[in-house]
Design goal:
This protein starts with a helix and ends with a helix. It has 20 helices and 13 strands. Helix 13 runs parallel beside helix 18. A six-stranded mixed beta sheet has the order 1-2-13-12-10-11, sandwiched between helices. Strands 6-5-7-8-9 form a five-stranded parallel beta sheet, sandwiched between helices. Strands 3-4 form a two-stranded antiparallel ribbon. 46% of the residues lie in helices and 12% in strands. By secondary structure, the chain is of the alpha/beta class. Strand 7, helix 10 and strand 8 form a beta-alpha-beta unit. The structure holds 6-O-phosphono-beta-D-fructofuranose. The site of 6-O-phosphono-beta-D-fructofuranose has 14 residues, from loops.
């Protein structure tokens, strides 16, 4: 078998060669291109034919995947081995959504029974809250959930809620992530504490911002309800002692384990608020959709494997063609938080500069990701995508059939998505008027969801999770730790002490001046 270094050399040479042919011309040269490069899996149609790889380029990418040991790494992931090498942890988010009796193990210890126990408790809680059987401190049913969490304890549930929320929810859901007091103030504005359930979500239950917001929200409950207000609290965490110390009743605490990474946690107890506000059936379908993609990823040969192919397309652009930025653009307003969710999933997972063994990486890793939703962004940054000096690949995500009632504008939305992908690739030469010249040859992937349902959303989430994993294997990095966030946290604690009157520490002149200017 080829060694990875040799396979990288072949891939990079193939990409250089492919760059000499326009993508659109590859369709003529390769009549079977579309059928080879469109994969259907779990309600998603993934079209990678507008990517810059020729048949040979794709073959080189697949050889790289084989040489890097993607299949063996995938087996280690599902076997619950310590793929998070720096923390000696498994990464078993697949266990969260597997059907009952799946028999997952983390580092050799069975975990599925415990997952099912928490899942059953979440279901019972969600159903009882929705049925008005679990009530607030004063005996009133809950009408609003305030979900407090940050990073992986926020972005996934926030994205899922926006994607799936009913037009007129029985229980509303608001999110608070930022320690900026404005965030909590806005979330609580107009709410009745008697009918508000505050769900504190933190894997560690030590995160500064979340604990500050949780303490303030508990104070808000106590101010109206007295200490009984604790009955309006619930939590999701791995740190059960800290939840108890905070005053959250044990029957309202939903646990998960350290093998659930924050950014992979949306289908754990972290999704509790969504399970309550969307209803258990919706949450279960979200899990089922992700589980279907897990099965696809686990069992499908590399050449037809959606997460593998998506990873290879991204790596072809990133490493083969030196493109450091990617746009993720859903043509679905409900998916408007997808890019922000993927920013953490991709950039916290793969924004790394050393290999598993701690050596400097041989090549560039994660791309920067941005995007909101089309068509809005066509009137914002798409100018740069079409005529800017950098080539920025795009992941288009579109929904074939919308279910938003009587408003029939879906064809307009879809026409724009299709047209943008075509325009980016085909361009429009205009030698006479350079300002109106579109160079084209700008790549994109096109992910078409038949409908935006809990199941297809679950599949989409798992597609990207596994894509990120495959990239991590190719780059030989640890996708499951996040040491890079620690230094800033430590310094913030130190600076806070100084802002609040503590003795001045050693700082550069710029930092010292800011502290001096802002301290109490
Ligand atoms: O930003 C770092 C981080 O540890 C993320 O990985 C995590 O999702 C987030 O903080 C929140 O952590 P916690 O769930 O422990 O509050």
């Amino acid at each position: 078998m080829t060694n990875p270094a040799a396979a990288w050399t072949v891939l990079e040479a193939a990409a250089r060669k492919d760059a000499q042919t326009r993508i659109v011309d590859l369709f003529t040269a390769e009549p079977d291109r579309l059928e080879r490069l469109v994969v259907e899996a779990c309600g998603l149609r993934l079209d990678l034919s507008k990517q810059p790889w020729s048949r040979a380029g794709l073959a080189a990418a697949l050889d790289l995947a084989a040489a890097a040991g993607v299949e063996a790494a995938r087996d280690r992931l599902f076997a619950g081995e310590a793929v998070n090498v720096t923390e000696n942890r498994a990464a078993l988010h697949m266990a969260l959504r597997a059907p009952d009796g799946a028999g997952f193990q983390a580092l050799g210890k069975p975990v599925s029974d415990a997952v099912e126990t928490v899942r059953n408790r979440m279901r019972a809680f969600a159903e009882a809250v929705r049925a008005g059987e679990i009530l607030g401190a004063t005996g009133k049913p809950f009408r609003t959930i305030v979900h407090i969490g940050i990073g992986g304890s926020d972005l996934g549930p926030r994205m899922v809620w926006r994607a799936l929320k009913p037009l007129e929810p029985q229980i509303a859901l608001r999110f608070v992530g930022n320690v900026d007091p404005s965030d909590l103030a806005q979330a609580l504005a107009g709410l009745d504490p008697e009918t508000t359930l505050v769900v504190v979500v933190s894997k560690t239950f030590t995160t500064q911002e979340t604990m500050a917001n949780a303490t303030a929200a508990r104070g808000w409950l106590h101010a109206f309800l007295g200490p009984d207000g604790d009955a309006n609290l619930a939590a999701a965490s791995t740190n059960l002692e800290a939840c108890a110390a905070f005053g959250i009743p044990a029957e309202r605490v939903f646990g998960f384990e350290d093998w659930v990474g924050g950014r992979y946690s949306v289908m754990s107890a972290v999704g509790l608020s969504c399970a309550v506000a969307l209803g258990w059936d919706v949450f279960a379908a979200l899990q089922a959709g992700a589980a279907a993609m897990d099965d696809h990823f686990r069992a499908t040969p590399l050449a037809a494997n959606a997460p593998v192919l998506l990873a290879l397309a991204h790596v072809f652009n990133r490493n083969g063609l030196g493109r450091p930025v990617r746009v993720v653009e859903p043509y679905a307003e409900r998916l408007g938080l997808l890019a922000s969710y993927l920013q953490q999933l991709e950039m916290e997972s793969n924004g790394k500069r050393v290999t598993l063994a701690g050596e400097p990486v041989a090549r560039a890793t994660a791309t920067a990701v941005f995007g909101n939703s089309g068509t809005n962004d066509q009137h914002a940054f798409f100018q740069m995508l079409h005529q800017g000096t950098d080539v920025i690949p795009v992941d288009f995500v579109a929904v074939a059939r919308a279910d938003e009632g009587p408003i029939r504008q879906q064809p307009i939305l879809l026409a724009n998505a299709i047209a943008q992908a075509e325009a980016l690739m085909a361009g429009s030469p205009n030698a006479a008027e350079p300002h109106r010249h579109f160079p084209g040859d700008r790549p994109s992937s096109f992910i078409l969801m038949d409908r935006l349902t809990p199941k297809t959303l679950g599949a989409l989430i798992a597609l990207y999770e596994h894509k990120v994993f495959v990239e991590g294997v190719l780059w030989d990095i640890c996708s499951f730790d996040q040491w890079g966030v620690e230094l800033g946290k430590t310094l913030a604690t130190r600076v806070l002490g100084e802002l609040q009157g503590g003795s001045a520490g050693a700082h550069d002149p710029s930092t010292a001046a800011l502290i001096e200017r802002l301290k109490d």
